[in-house]
From TrEMBL:
It is found in: Cell membrane. The keyword Cell membrane applies. Pfam families: LPG_synthase_TM. InterPro entries: L-PG_synthase/AglD. It comes from Halomonas binhaiensis. This is Flippase-like domain-containing protein. It is a multi-pass membrane protein.
Length: 368
């Protein structure tokens, strides 16, 4: 028994267990993204998928590839040479490996650590990488806030009758509050770090050395974020323009899936006002994907599997038949999830093998 424990240390057992659970969760996610819509749509789902135009599917793949390259270009602009010479191919490699980690882990939890680790290999510290990630996410939230504001304004000033109006307004309010909290946290961070830490009795949550360690990294992250925001205005505009273009193209995938499915079948005459003939407008498809991204975080499976399909399907049901909605969801997920996993796996594997090789070399040098 002692020999077996020596051969398989406790840490190895823990890593093996975590890897097994993650692989099982990913397998269930891949299955759920196909089975859940199929179960909701019934037998007619297969016929709707078989009739989907191949040129439309090819266009969706082209848009996905464009999104990857746009994000890589945005990363290069945000780093502005601070992580060494970063070409488009290298930036695309970081983008694809990070996207794979996001899609392969529950809640996308593996994305930020992968992103920070890849930047660390280029001499960019984790705190600085966290600042770049924070700026990237802030650009995304700003874009969604602007889009939701435009959509809510249109619905309030026109006769357009969209379902779930209260849900749309709640999402807008939540985004605005989140952005304000980020701005306030960034501005008041030094003052917050100088306040007396919380304690239970005479014991603090963190020791003095750990508090200093955390404070240094938070301040370094804040400094790097401010440096990024102090880039020339032309670069900041270009970063936000690339962010907007990425999300416009990415969130057009569901619209193209809906157009392809409904072009081969009958329309729903009971569609809400402004979306007649069973055809969902681009704006409603945008909202459906955005709300599904939020509900997908509630799923314990990678990629929000199960929750994303149910939420998008529910939002599409007022616009088209059940079989068509299920087929559109499956085709959309094939491009927006399965393709991301398939294309990102080689990049993630390559970086992981390089990391393991470097770790072995470092251990040999340490031993010698």
């Amino acid at each position: 028994m002692a020999e077996s424990l020596a051969i398989f240390p406790r840490s190895a057992h823990r890593h093996y267990l975590h890897g097994t659970l993650l692989a099982l969760a990913l397998a269930l996610a891949l299955l759920a993204t196909l089975v859940v819509p199929w179960w909701l749509g019934g037998r007619g789902t297969f016929l709707a998928i078989a009739a989907f135009p191949l040129p439309m599917f090819a266009l969706m793949i082209v848009l996905a590839v464009m999104c990857w390259n746009i994000n890589a270009a945005r990363l290069r602009l945000m780093l502005a040479g601070r992580a060494g010479r970063l070409g488009q191919a290298s930036a695309l490699s970081i983008e694809m490996a990070s996207k794979f980690a996001i899609c392969a882990t529950p809640g996308g939890a593996g994305g930020p650590p992968t992103f920070l680790a890849l930047l660390t290999r280029r001499g960019y510290s984790p705190s600085q990488g966290a600042a770049i990630y924070l700026v990237d996410q802030s650009c995304d939230m700003l874009f969604f806030t602007l889009m939701l504001s435009i959509i809510v304004t249109i619905t309030m000033t026109t006769a357009t009758d969209w379902p779930y109006q209260a849900l749309i307004e709640s999402a807008l309010l939540g985004l605005i509050v989140t952005i304000l909290l980020l701005i306030l946290s960034l501005y008041f961070l030094p003052r917050l770090l100088r306040t007396r830490p919380l304690s239970i009795g005479r014991r603090h949550w963190l020791g003095r050395s750990k508090r200093r360690w955390l404070a240094r990294r938070l301040l370094r992250c804040r400094r790097s974020a401010i440096m990024t925001l102090q880039l020339p205005p032309a670069k900041l505009v270009a970063i936000f323009a690339l962010c907007s273009l990425h999300w416009v193209l990415r969130y057009s995938l569901l619209f193209l899936a809906v157009v392809g499915v409904t072009s081969m079948g009958a329309s729903n005459e009971n569609a809400p006002g402004g979306m007649s003939d069973g055809m969902a407008t681009w704006a409603w498809c945008f909202l459906a994907q955005m709300l599904s991204m939020a509900t997908g975080q509630l799923s314990m499976l990678p990629g929000g599997a199960g929750a994303a399909e149910v939420s998008v399907g529910a939002l599409l049901l007022p616009l088209m038949d059940r079989e068509q909605a299920a087929a559109a969801v499956i085709i959309w997920r094939l491009v927006s999830y399965h393709l991301y996993l398939l294309a990102g796996a080689p990049f993630f594997t390559t970086h992981a093998l390089r990391w393991l090789k470097g770790r072995k070399v470092r251990s040999k040098l340490t031993a010698s």
